[in-house]
From TrEMBL:
Transmembrane segments: none annotated. One of its GO terms (biological process) is response to oxidative stress. Pfam families: MerR (PF00376), MerR-DNA-bind (PF09278). GO terms for molecular function: 2 iron, 2 sulfur cluster binding; DNA binding; DNA-binding transcription factor activity; metal ion binding. This is Redox-sensitive transcriptional activator SoxR. It comes from the Bacteria. Residues 10-78 form the HTH merR-type domain. Keywords: 2Fe-2S, DNA-binding, Iron, Iron-sulfur, Metal-binding, Transcription, Transcription regulation. PANTHER family: REDOX-CYCLING DRUG-SENSING TRANSCRIPTIONAL ACTIVATOR SOXR, REDOX-SENSITIVE TRANSCRIPTIONAL ACTIVATOR SOXR. SUPFAM superfamilies: Putative DNA-binding domain.
Amino acid sequence: MSQPRSRIALLTPAEVAEQCKINVSALHFYEAKGLISAYRSAGNQRRYQKDVLRRIAIIKIAQQIGISLNEIAERFAALPANRTPTAADWSVLSQHWQSDLDSRIDSLMVLRNKLDSCIDCGCLSLSNCPLRT
């Protein structure tokens, strides 16, 4: 990506990595996956706008709840590229993930409730195990 039009303060990869508590290699990986983008300085060095900090925070949270990088990339593709996403933008994004998370929580609760009957159930086979259905 070329230099931004306005004279806003850009962050170096080391600054972003330090603030986000990730490795610089993770930034390069996220960039390769299309999750974040960088500008290039006159010396061809990466520089990031401050909104990348919010995107990385969302990436880290989404990964903690089991959302794949591919799904994160799909959702990020719907966000505006030319401005910092607003609270409304993030709300739309999070509503989708909340629905998915609620569904997984429901499935886990059903599984948890079946665990008590698992001990001494007598199924003797994973193929017959009621927990696998």
